[in-house]
Amino acid sequence: MINMDLNERIKELALQNGVTYFGVADLSKAKQAILSQGGLEIASFPYSISLGIPLTNHIVDQLPRRSERSVALNYSHHGTDVINQRLDIVASVVSGFIQQQGHTVLPIPASKRIDDERICAAFSHKMGASLSGLGWIGKSCLLITPDSGPRVRWASILTDAPIEPTGQLMEEQCGDCSACVDICPMKTFTGKPFHEEEPREVRYDAKKCDKYFEKMKAKGQIDVCGMCLYVCPYGRK
User: Fold this and answer.
1) Once rounded to an integer, what is the mean pLDDT over residues 150-161?
2) What are phi and psi of 54, to 5 degrees?
3) 209 CB contacts (<8 Å, ≥6 apart)?
4) What is the per-residue DSSP string for the chain?
């Protein structure tokens, strides 16, 4: 039985701890994709909670100058590491609360791979956020929110708590825009719109992207790009 009071208590706790975006998704619509990516344990949970924190716009807006060490360092630190840590702490706090109510939870780290070959996490934060109605998957394979664009980092909590999904799937609103496709230094995007039945490779070559970062690290550079995130019209104000 759905517990609306529990929904509100979880949301309030998340917002009090610094989250801007909060959503709940019914995962039954994506069971096979979740099973393929994360395995039986991950696919056993009926709901996901999405937690999102926007990046600092001024830091993102400096990314065209990312060859400058100060710009790359600030994005790597405040645009990635610090926000991921904040998300993981909120996910831990919220998970602890849900467990105290007698339910099973599994927080998924904000940015950790479980598979270097497939270059993926145990669970897709973007898919969870999309299913909870917080945005749509763009041509960059990033989750695009209407107000912050892709300038948001995400963490997820999987649970069996009887909570109510928060929204409907949002229609893709990229239209003919190809800014993210055109600006990518490695041309990793094909420009094809997202279709849930198609594999990621139809839209995005993750290995090309990974090699770009490896080359930067080999040269002693801070491995920062983010140009697809920077250029999206929905994030640029």
Assistant:
1) 98
2) -70, 150
3) 186, 188, 225
4) ---HHHHHHHHHHHHHTT-SEEEEEEGGGGHHHHHHHH-HHHHT-SEEEEEEEEPPHHHHHTGGGTTSHHHHHHHHIIIIIHHHHHHHHHHHHHHHHHHHTT--EEEEPTT--SBTTTTB-SS-HHHHHHHTTS-EE-TTSSEEBTTTBT-EEEEEEEE-S------PPPPP--TT--HHHHH-TT--B--PPP-TTS-GGGTB-HHHHHHHHHHHHHTT------HHHHH-TTT--
Q: Which CATH architecture has domain 4-231?
A: 3-Layer(aba) Sandwich (3.40)
Query: Rounded to an integer, what distance in angstroms lies between the CA atom of residue 40 and that of residue 43?
Result: 5
Give per-residue pLDDT as tens, 118-138.
Answer: 777 899 999 999 999 999 999
> What tokens were used for 179?
């800014």
Residues 164 and 161: their CA atoms lie apart, in Å, by 9
Which one has a higher pLDDT value, 93 or 201? 93
Q: How many residues does the chain have?
A: 237
CB atoms closer than 10 angstroms to residue 163: 24
Please choose, from the candidates 142, 112, 165, the residue with its C-alpha nearest in 3D space to the C-alpha of residue 229.
Answer: 142
Q: Are 151 and 229 in contact (CB under 8 A)?
A: yes
